[in-house]
Structures are given as structure tokens and as C-alpha cells.
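Here is an idea for our session: we take a single protein and study its fold together. Which protein we use is up to you, so please pick one and set it down. Once you have written the record down, we can walk along the chain together:
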Amino acid sequence: MEHAPTTAVVLITAYGDVRTAVRALKAGATDFLLKPWHNEQLLQTLAAALPKTGRKNGGSPKKAAGPAAATVLLGESAAMQEVRAIIEKVAPTEANVLLLGENGTGKELVAKSLHEQSRRAARAFVAADVAALSEGLFESELFGHTKGAFTDAQASRVGRFEAATGGTLFLDEIGNIGLPQQAKLLTALQNRQVVPVGSNTPVPVDIRLLSATNAPLHALVARGAFRQDLMYRLNTVEITLPPLRERGDDVLLLAQHFAQVYAIGNRQPVPEFSAAALRKLQEHTWPGNVRELQHAVERAVILGAGPVLLPTDFSFRNSESATASASAVAATVAEQPLPLLEVEKATIQKAIERHQGNLTKAAKELGLTRTALYRRLDKHDI
């Protein structure tokens, strides 16, 4: 690199461990791969490295066209290798894909990776969290609306389906929409056209649909809470993302990656991890999965007292608050026997208050899926 400083260097090794990888990155390597690698992973790594060289075929530096880097799915565990192998097979097809897995496992990253490796990669990737859309906004957001279609519709607006035409539409939290919305979504997918709110003219759409949920979709179908015909439309192929607790040494690999990202982003030296800190990370169950790990490392990098991260630099707030909540409930029951339903209702209300009405965070603290929390809200009339 001293002779050609603009060259991107990718380390490939059969004997790599986390410390070796970090030393390579500190020395100037763009990225690293462990043998054996998947071709899809190698191509993603090279695609991410090339724009950083600023050169093409020996020419003068130029701005890279298209996205700055491909989406890279880090992880060498058997579970993640299987996920990447499925992506490599499915991405070039037109198959609709349903992504299953717990919150924080990286479903949107997988969706982006599927899009980037598809024949639609040059067109738009449009995402929508459909669970966040009220019944009134569902059609407007997905199918669009015309000027004057409803109060405050001061101009016509293209919906997500039309915006994604030629590309990929990613619908997150698909398991949390109601039956009326499911019927409207199924109609759009069957007819491959949408009718904007306030219009009678169908608009043809050409999309590849990717969807995701952490809800037990097959169980919802069995209970009649989710349409079976819609599920068949969504899940030509299913990909289940493994929780972080089942990914072994990927925890350490991801921790080092996030440490580098946040140190560089905050213009700080990239810290090392003490052996005790690594043990603490690996022993934690990570109920929030990769997202929880990412936030834990970001806090440690920003608040850490020195160049080496120690166990005390990592506090797992979600787990600790959930444990404290459970202890508080147990204490309440011991001091003042209450009917179980009242205890459950009070616990749910306190969790929602702590998170200022954010049901996703409240559900995570309570150890519930958002769907399960909704059912309890209905049961207790909260």
C-alpha cells in the first residue's frame, strides 16, 4: 500500500480470528474474508471495496456510479452461510420472498441484499413498515392518492407500489396488518395493478415483493388471523434468519465490525476488546439480536474510558430493565396478592409508559412479539 496507496486491499485467510481481522483493518485493509468463502460474499466484498479506490482501469479518480457499497451480511456461522447460499440462489429470480425471524436479526439487510443481486438492482428499492400504517393511511401510502381525495390531500401522490415499479418493494411487519388490509394487498398482487385513493383508473405495477415479519405467520393462518391465500402469494421462498444467540463467534465478529464503524464515525481510535469483555458479549443471550449488539457496542465506543473495552463498558439495558420489571411484579404479588390478570395489565401499562407509548420497545421489554402485545391490549381493553 505504500507504493500504491489508492489500491483497495482485501485480506483472505484460513487462519483469521477477530484480532487478526482488526489488525488488518487498522493497517489499511478495506475488508477481510475467511476461507472458505461464498462467491456471493466475495463479490459483495469486492463491490464494496472498489468505490473506495476512486479509480477505474487506471484512470483518474472519479465518483462511483450507483450505490456506494453493496450490502454485506457479516457472519461465518453455519446458519449465516446457509442464509447467504439461499440468497445466492433466489436473488436472480422473480420469486417473492418472505423473511422470518426475531426482531433485530437483519431482515431488511437481507431484503436489500436480495435486491442488489437481482436483475432489478438498477431500479428502486422501496421499503414500508406496514404495521405502522393506520387503516386510513394504508391505501394512500401503498397505492397512492389523487388531489382532493381526502382532507389535506393537496396534491396527487404516488404510492409505494408505483414508486417501486421495475424494482423491489419491501413490506416489513407484514404479519401485523388486519384482514381488511390483507384483502386489499392481495387484490393488488393478484391483479398487478393498484387504484389510487380518489381514482377509478387502475395503474399497472411491476414489482418484486419481499416481505418480513417476526410474527408466527403460519400460526396466524391456522387461527384465521392471516389469509392463507395471501401467505401463498408472499412466500414462494421463505428465509428464516437465525437469532444472534445461535450464531456462535459471529457475535465477536460483528462486535469488532461495529466498533470499527463507530470509532471511525466518531473520529476515535478503533478500540481493542479485553478477553473478559469478549466473554461477556458471547455469554449474553441477545434478546434484541444484532440491533442490540450494535447499540451496545456504539455506547461502549462512545463512553469507554480507554483504548481497551472492558466488561463494565457494556450494559444490556433492555435485559436489565426486563429483569427489573419482572422482579418488581414478583415483589408486588408477594406484598399484595392481586388477580393475575390485574398484575399482567399493570405490568403492560407500566412498560408502555416507560417507553412513552412505543409498543415495539414495550413488547421487547416484556419478552413478547408485537402481535402478542396487541392481543393483550385488546384482552385488557388498554
